[in-house]
């Protein structure tokens, strides 16, 4: 009888192990970052659209990132894509990797893991080179995948490959060639990605849910909103209580609040060339801050508080925003 019931329990146990591993096994690769200290706080910088061998103020932005990074004692750095101009990397031995990354972001405080997504310019080169683990032998900070998840205890980050969503890169490439290896057939790629992101967001129990992509959902800058993401991605983010969406692509800094959900749209694309000079007047959400020049963003998270700061090329604070989770749920 005892043998019988323990056999029965074993079967149940095996069944539970099997079902939990299969249901929580998403297609998206997962990484872990331990939070700091007993309070589980996290701090990181976000920079985008940068790799120009130090030119267009890239080195100045890097210098200030180093100083702010020192103060904040960073956990890691996030790159919102367009990592290497003009056409990504030509291969894993392209000197642009070291000239635009290793030799530019030299500050001690920036010697942390960098989590990067690909931008449209990265797709114009040998896309797979940027994803190749061999780059980590040259600079161990580098980690770039198309889409992946970072679990940092109080926060979970969902990095999304947004270039394949943009119709014009496929329909009117305007003389540019894109390396879509691993993306075609495009419709399957997008459908699978959306399904994986939706599942992962739904299953996430993190206090803060943060989504990172290269293209803006909302932007008042040169490229404006990305309609494909507004249509296909935004509803998933809203339905799953995403707190922050972070992107680059427009070479500026901006903070836009959604008027229909708590999600905040944050553009940090000021890593090098900027000053485009075309602010779009019309926007369907609430533009809290827009800066056309170079700079970057810091994020400090605690269990109950998120503080977001934008800095210019001299390290000056341009915009600061605080949100409390407790206040939000009490409202
Ligand atoms: C570098 O930054 C300064 C200060 O914002 C700006 O005046 C200058 O135009 C920038 N240079 C370039 C090449 O963007
Ligand atoms: C913003 O958050 C920080 C913690 O990150 C806190 O020290 C600061 O007092 C807050 N500021 C405001 C204005 O609420
Ligand atoms: Zn871009």
UniProtKB/TrEMBL annotation:
Protein name: Purple acid phosphatase
EC number: 3.1.3.2
Organism: Macleaya cordata
GO molecular function, one term: acid phosphatase activity
Leader sequence residues: 1-24
Reaction(s) this enzyme catalyzes, per UniProt: a phosphate monoester + H2O = an alcohol + phosphate
Cofactor(s) recorded in Swiss-Prot or TrEMBL: Fe cation
Pfam family, one: Metallophos
Binding positions for Fe cation 2 per the UniProt entry: 82, 120, 214, 249
UniProt: Fe cation 1 binding residues: 49, 82, 85, 251
Superkingdom of origin organism: Eukaryota
Cofactor binding, note field: Binds 2 iron ions per subunit.
Keyword Transcription regulation found: no
Domain (Calcineurin-like phosphoesterase): residue spans on this chain: 43-252
Localization terms from the record: Secreted
Transmembrane portions of the chain: none
């Amino acid at each position: 009888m005892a043998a019988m019931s323990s056999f029965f329990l074993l079967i149940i146990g095996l069944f539970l192990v099997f079902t939990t591993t299969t249901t929580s096994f998403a297609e998206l690769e997962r990484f872990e970052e331990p939070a700091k200290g007993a309070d589980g706080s996290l701090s990181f910088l976000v920079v985008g659209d940068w790799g120009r061998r130090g030119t267009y103020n890239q080195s100045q932005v890097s210098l200030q990132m180093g100083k702010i990074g020192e103060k904040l004692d960073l956990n890691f750095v996030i790159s919102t894509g367009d990592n290497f101009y003009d056409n990504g990397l030509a291969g894993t031995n392209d000197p642009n990797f070291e000239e635009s990354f290793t030799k530019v972001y030299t500050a001690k405080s920036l010697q942390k893991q960098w989590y990067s997504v690909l931008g449209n310019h990265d797709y114009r080169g040998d896309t797979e080179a940027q994803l190749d683990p061999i780059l980590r032998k040259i600079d161990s900070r580098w980690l770039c995948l198309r889409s992946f998840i970072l679990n940092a205890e109080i926060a979970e980050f969902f990095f999304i490959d947004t270039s394949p969503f943009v119709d014009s890169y496929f329909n009117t490439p305007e003389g540019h060639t894109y390396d879509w290896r691993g993306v075609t057939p495009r419709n399957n790629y997008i459908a699978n990605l959306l399904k994986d992101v939706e599942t992962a967001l739904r299953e996430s129990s993190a206090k803060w849910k943060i989504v990172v992509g290269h293209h803006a959902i909302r932007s008042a800058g040169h490229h404006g909103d990305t309609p494909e993401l507004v249509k296909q991605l935004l509803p998933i983010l809203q339905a799953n209580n995403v707190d922050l969406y972070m992107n680059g692509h427009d070479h500026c800094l901006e903070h836009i609040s959604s008027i229909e959900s708590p999600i905040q749209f944050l553009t940090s694309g000021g890593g090098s060339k900027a000053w485009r000079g075309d602010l779009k007047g019309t926007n369907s959400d609430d533009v809290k801050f827009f800066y056309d020049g170079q700079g970057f963003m810091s994020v400090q998270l605690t269990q109950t508080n998120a503080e977001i700061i934008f800095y210019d090329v001299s390290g000056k604070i341009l915009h600061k925003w605080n949100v409390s989770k407790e206040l939000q749920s009490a409202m």
